[in-house]
Amino acid sequence: MPMKIVSWNVNSLNVRQSQVLDYLESHHPAVLGLQELKQTDEAVKREAFIQAGWHLVTQGQKTYNGVALISKSAPENVVRGIPNNEDDPQARAIAASYGDLRVLNLYVPNGKAVGDEKYHYKLGWLEKLQAYVARLLQEYPKLVVIGDFNIAPADIDVHDPKAWQDKILCSAPERQALQALFDLGLTDAFRARHPERQQFSWWDYRMGGLRRNLGLRIDLTLISPALQLIDADIDMAPREQERPSDHAPAWVEIQ
């Protein structure tokens, strides 16, 4: 049976919880992964999700970061964070099983600027992620990795490649780290479905980013070889709402 898995950086769950609930009601995804909750686990208002029949698991953090998985079926074997990275206080990863499907939801560090200490933290984090995903693929052949990767995979995913060349989100080391995940066998579902289409998932609030389509595709849905890709796309409607997140949901349909 086909399953729709969605990734959405909501840029504050507290601000956009009603938008998330509306999206769940209208789209009925099997799993919705959220990034940038910007709330602690205790602060998340869970009752509305529970009343609507959804299961919600989170790895929260005050003010920054935070990830969640929302589903109709109960998640099993929930793992928060990246193994062997337990000393890192940043809430950036959560994984759970839904039957024989494993879903890993990520909020990859931004990195701030090439050469910055946060950039080096990002590259180190991605190296640990690669080792984690390699282990997951051995244990869970049916694996979906979703999230805000804060990396544009290629120049087609950037509105102005020359302006972004060697800049944060587009630097060669970041793209090489993403390629390392592809080398493990994961497929970028959107690009597999739309080899030549330029479509973005993030637009800066400033400078009329959305109106002028000054975007990047940094929200990704990656699938393992054991899964059959039916479709994948980016849903523009939530980005065009009042008080939207600066990201649009990216989704993949598999079986």
TrEMBL record:
GO terms for biological process: DNA repair. The active site is at Y107, D148 (proton donor/acceptor), H247 (proton acceptor). Residues 6-247 form the Endonuclease/exonuclease/phosphatase domain. Probably binds two magnesium or manganese ions per subunit. Pfam families: Exo_endo_phos. It is an enzyme of class 3 (hydrolase). Keywords: Hydrolase, Magnesium, Manganese, Metal-binding. The record marks H247 as: Interaction with DNA substrate. One of its GO terms (molecular function) is metal ion binding. InterPro entries: AP_endonuc_1, AP_endonuclease_F1_CS, Endo/exonu/phosph_ase_sf, Endo/exonuclease/phosphatase, ExoIII-like. The record marks N150 as: Transition state stabilizer. Coiled coil: none annotated. Its cofactor is Mn(2+); Mg(2+). Its EC number is 3.1.11.2. The record marks D219 as: Important for catalytic activity. The keyword Lipoprotein does not apply. Mg(2+) binds at N9, E36, D148, N150, D246, H247. Belongs to the DNA repair enzymes AP/ExoA family. NCBIfam families: exoDNase_III, xth. This is Exodeoxyribonuclease III. It comes from Suttonella indologenes.
